[in-house]
Specification:
- The protein has one domain (12-122): SH3 type barrels (Roll), CATH 2.30.30.110.
- The protein has helices at residues 21-29, 31-36, 50-56, 108-122; strands spanning 12-18, 40-46, 58-65, 74-78, 82-86, 91-94, 101-105.
- A hairpin with a 3-residue loop joins strand 4 and strand 5 (82-86).
- It is globular and about 40 Å long.
- It is of the alpha+beta class.
- It contains four helices and seven strands, in the order βααβαβββββα.
- The chain is 29% helix and 32% strand.
- Strands 1, 2, 3, 4, 5, 6 and 7 form a seven-stranded antiparallel β-sheet that branches.
- This is mRNA interferase.
- One of its GO terms (molecular function) is RNA endonuclease activity.
- InterPro entries: PemK-like, Plasmid_toxin/cell-grow_inhib.
- Pfam families: PemK_toxin.
- It comes from Helicobacter macacae MIT 99-5501.
Amino acid sequence: MIAKKYTPDLGDVVSLDFIPSEETNTSEANPQEAKDIKPKQRLAVVLSPITYNKASGLCVCVPITSQIRDYPFEVPITLKTKMMILADQIKSVDFAQRNATPITKIHISKIYQIKKLLASLLGLQFALN
């Protein structure tokens, strides 16, 4: 039986594999070192709809951090502990390559908060419809 591949959807909290940037720079200079680097798991909130994600193989997301800094683009979220969604650090990632794993789904009100902050940052109009 073939396992169904997971495709993230809007509002999903996912765990993604990331390699720290300082290690990435080292591995580019020496490909052998790249084999020895273990990816780190990071949480993110998916902002793109499943239709886009399926068609492109990518998902647009923002990271979640446990470091709380009272930064204007932080959106609070409680998972196992209080954490912050970093609304201004938007990324597009290949979810299969990053081994996206579903964790939970956030309430639509949090999505609205993130989108309002992004709209403000980019100088866009955002209406809650």
